[in-house]
Structure formats: C-alpha cells, structure tokens
Write a structure and sequence with these properties.
about 325 residues; alpha/beta; Rossmann fold; Dihydrodipicolinate Reductase, domain 2; 6-stranded mixed beta sheet; 5-stranded parallel beta sheet; 9 helices; about 20% strand; globular
C-alpha cells in the first residue's frame, strides 16, 4: 500500500496531541506537518508543551501556520469549531481530504458523520470531508446499534464524563481534580441526542443527562432502553457484539462485554483505548439497561478519526 502524507491541525490541545501520538510510525500515514496557533508557529516540535502522560513522539517538524499547510493528502483536524469553519473547507477546496473532530460540520448535508463499525454506509456520500462523532455518543451507540433488531422504542442516558473532555485547562485545574467541578456541560445533551438519532437512523424518544466528574479520562454512561420485543440476556449480549474491522487502529474486540460495571482503573485502556467496555447488562422483558466506558480522547476523538481515515483508505474513498 502506498503511504499518505498527512497534516495535523492543532499542536498543543489534548486531541491534537493524541493524534500526534497515535499517528507516529503509523502503517498508512506519514505526518509531514503540524499546524499550530500563532504563538507556536515557527517553534520546533519539541518546544511545544506536552500535555499527555505518555511520552512525546519524536517528530523533527517545525510548527507551521494554518495558512502554510503544505499540499498533503490528508488533514486530521482537532481545531475549535470557530477555526475549523474557516480552515477545513479551504483545505477541501485544495483537494486535501479532511477528517475532523470539530463539531462545526457534524450533521451538515454532504459531510458524513461516521463511526465505521456503526454506519459505514454513510461514507458512500464522502466527498473529501468527513467527521467523527461527539466522544460521548461512542459508548452509547456501539452497544445499541445491534439492538435495533429488537425494535428500539426509547432511550435514556446518564453520563459521567471526564475532565479531559473539556480540554487541558480543566484537566490541570487542581480544584477540579479534587472534586470541585461544575457537573453541567453546556449543549452536551442536545449534541448527544441529535448525533445518536442520526447514527441509529431512528426518530425515537431519547432523554439524556450529561455530567462532568472529577476523573482525568474516560466517559462512563448508564443507558436504559425500551424495545418492542421481549428478550433475554444472552440475546442482548449476542446482538451487542460487533465484528472487528481489519484496520491498524481496530481493537480485537470492539465491545468488550463483562458481567460487572466497567471502571476506569481496569478497563480504560482495553484494546489500547479503542475498545468500549460494556457491563452490568440487565434485561427485564422489554427493558434493557447497561453501563459502558470508553476512552474519550482515544476512541472518542483522535483514535476514532484515524480509524475513519483508515476505513476510507481501505475502501478506496482515498487513493494516491
């Protein structure tokens, strides 16, 4: 397979640094440019503050400006929405394939919003610009998608979302780490509900309560479904299983099913952070409940958008 030159849009944010980490020595992609904010432009890569607990990758790259991104094959965007609205379309117009974590273009006509294991058919509309989903929807939709066979009538969701979902500033806030964090996440419930309905392709009742908690990483969700058919635990577990994609970022097990409740200490890094741990599954007639955990900056953000680009390459939506 021919390799693809890529640029990372963003240099010092948590998602952009996850992209830097996960794309280093990638079998499909070669990082040739990292575009940063004005205060970082012109700096050598190793001069940028590293915000992750993992070691900094060894790029020998000068940070460029958003206006000086070279003619790469692919750009991975971790930009704020207001910046993405300007930068991403300009790159698509230059013939650069853009895979975005920004919320600005989610559910916009002509721009697929895709989790490859959930709605791969939506990539048929791909025309150079695609988005990954909100990181909170991942641990909800991946266990649910197979349950559509039972006829989903309604869904209720309660989330406990990590500090890193709000960026490095909150993650470095001592008060937040010690438990003094505002649980309210503006706009999150609306985004979760809208994107979940989009991915499931269902117009059903969905209620959500989204809450920030004093944990560094990992989004935990508790989900209750009402379905049309009586069912049992073994059937639900069988329907929750998702086949692995034969791609570099694919985990061996997509939905890692356990009996007990997931917890961050044991399950956050299952599948190198790309698996969703699903547990405490209970079935009573037409009511199904479960808890699920996924790594928000890996599976929910950087790893998710890389997996989407890998899928696009494998399916020849991107060619050299």
């Amino acid at each position: 397979m021919r390799r693809f030159e890529v640029a990372i849009l963003g240099s010092s944010g948590l998602v952009s640094q996850r992209l830097q980490e996960l794309l280093y020595d990638h079998p499909f992609f070669d990082v040739v440019a990292i575009a940063g904010s004005p205060q970082n432009v012109g700096s050598m890569y190793d001069e940028i503050e590293w915000r992750l607990d993992s070691p900094r990758p060894n790029y020998d790259i000068l940070i460029c400006s958003m206006s000086d991104i070279p003619d790469v094959d692919i750009a991975f965007s971790a930009l704020p929405s207001n910046v993405a609205e300007i930068v991403e379309p300009s790159l698509v117009a230059r013939g650069i394939h853009v895979f975005s974590n920004a919320s600005a273009f989610r559910r916009i006509a002509g721009i697929p919003l895709v989790i490859p294991e959930v709605n791969p058919e939506d990539m048929r509309n791909y025309d150079g610009h695609a988005c990954a989903t909100n990181c909170t929807v991942v641990p909800v939709v991946t266990p649910i998608i197979g349950l559509k066979d039972l006829g989903i009538k309604s869904i209720s969701i309660y989330t406990r979302q990590a500090l890193s979902g709000a960026g490095w500033q909150l993650l470095n806030d001592k008060n937040a780490l010690e438990g003094n964090v505002n649980p309210f996440i503006p706009g999150e419930e609306e985004k979760l509900i809208a994107e979940l309905k989009y991915l499931l392709d269902l117009d059903i009742q969905v209620n959500a309560s989204c809450n920030r908690v004093s944990q560094k990483d990992g989004h935990m969700v508790s989900v209750r479904l009402q379905v049309q058919q009586n069912t049992d635990l073994e059937t639900v577990k069988r329907l929750m299983k998702i086949n692995r994609l034969n791609l570099p970022s694919s985990p061996e097990v997509v939905n890692y099913i356990i009996d007990e409740k997931p917890n961050r200490d044991e399950h956050l890094w299952i599948g190198n952070g790309m698996s969703i741990t699903v547990g405490n599954i209970q079935v009573k007639g037409k009511i199904i409940t479960f808890d699920a955990l996924s790594h928000n900056t890996v599976r929910g953000a950087a790893g998710g958008v890389i997996l989407l680009a890998e899928f696009a390459v494998k399916k020849a939506y991107i060619t050299k």
